[in-house]
Amino acid sequence: MALIEAVEVTKQFANHLALDRVSISVPGQSIFGLLGPNGAGKTTLIRIINQITGPDSGSLFLNGQRLKPSDVTQIGYLPEERGLYKKMKVGEQVVYFARLKGLSSAEAGRRAKNWFGRLEMDSWWDKKVEELSKGMQQKAQFVSTVLHEPKLLIFDEPFSGFDPVNAGIIKNEILHLRERGATVLFSTHNMSSVEELCDDITLIHKARVILQGRVDEIRSKWAANEYVFTYRGDVTITGEAGYRVLDRTRENGKTVFRIETRTPVSENMLVSELLKMGDILSFNPALPSMNDIFIKVVQSRNETVEA
Question: How many CB atoms lie within 10 A of CB 135?
Fold first, then answer.
C-alpha cells in the first residue's frame, strides 16, 4: 500500500506551469527517488506534499486518507535551502524543532543526545550554527528532520555539502531508517545515489511524469544489446558477424569483454558461440546506469517536443 500518493496534481504560477497532472505512488517502507532536471517541478511537488503550498487541482493521500494539515507531524522535511537559525545553539535548535513536531522537551533532548552521539556531534551541542561548517550544519539539520521519527521523510538534495565519508554515513542512516519502518522520498541529481538507495523512481520533466517504476526493472528495460563476458586466463576474441567487441580488460588472471550484438539474439546462442573462444567464468547483460537512462529519456522527450 502507498504511504503517500499524489493523483493528477497540477500547479500553475502566473505564466509558468510547474506541475501538469502529476501522479506518484510511494510504497510504504521504501526509498523513492523523485528525479528531473532543474525546473522540472520536483520541489513544487515536495512543497505541496509538505502543505507549504496547495495544488490547483488533484488530490493527495497519506495512508489512504486525504492529506490534512495535522499530518505535518508525520512528515520530516529536509529542504535543499537549509533553514537553521545562525545565532542559536545547535542543541537548543534541534530540541526546538522537535517540540514543534509534538515531542516534549525531555523526550526531544533524550533523542537528540542519542543522535548527536551516534553521528559524533557531541561537542557541537553548545555551539552556534554559524560556528559550524556547511557539512556540520547539514548533519544538524538531518537530525532535526528525523528526530520526531516521522512516517514519511522527505529529503531534497540530502547529500549536498557532504564530503564522501559523511555522505556515506548519511546514506547508511537513511537505509537504517527504512529498516525501522520509515518511508523516504528524496530528490537528487546524484544518479549513483539513486542506484545505491532507491527502490522506485519517478522522473519529471517540464512539469510532467515521463518515466517511473522500480529501478531494477527500468534498468533492465533500457538495457541495450550489450553483455559482459569474463574468461579464465588471457583470451582474445574478434567480433564476428553477429557482434562486436566494445571493450577488453585483463586483470587477476581473467579477461573481461564487453560486447554488443548487432541484432537481438538468443542468449543461449551467444554463449554457445563465445564458449568456442575459451573458458567462460561469468556472463551478464550490461545494464545501463541510471545516469545514462536519465539523459536518454530527457533528450528523447526534448527532441519529441521540438519536432
Answer: 15
Picking from 183, 199, 197, the residue whose alpha carbon sits closest to that of residue 151 is 183
Give just the sign of the alpha carbon dihedral 173, 176, 177, 182. Answer: positive
Domain boundaries, the chain: 2-219, 224-285
User: 58 φ, ψ to 5°?
Assistant: 105, 175
How far apart CA 199 and CA 217 sit, in angstroms, is 10
- List the chain pLDDT tens, one digit each, 307 residues: 899 999 999 999 998 999 999 999 999 999 999 999 988 999 999 999 999 999 999 999 999 999 999 999 999 999 887 778 899 999 999 999 999 999 999 999 999 999 999 999 999 999 999 999 888 898 999 999 999 999 999 999 888 878 889 999 999 999 999 999 999 999 988 888 899 999 999 999 999 999 999 999 999 888 878 899 999 999 988 766 678 888 899 989 999 998 888 877 788 888 888 888 899 999 988 888 899 899 989 888 887 655 5
**Helical packing angle, 105-118 and 134-146, nearest 10°:** 130
- Kindly report each contact of residues 159-163 with a partner whose C-beta sits within 8 Å and lies 24 or more positions away, as own/partner: 159/188, 159/190, 159/193, 160/80, 161/134, 161/135, 161/137, 162/135, 162/138, 163/135
How far is 55 from 51, CA to CA, in rounded Å? Answer: 9
DSSP-based three-state secondary structure for 198: coil
- Tell me whether strands 16-27 and 152-156 are parallel, antiparallel or unpaired: unpaired
Fold assignment, 2-219: Rossmann fold (3.40.50)
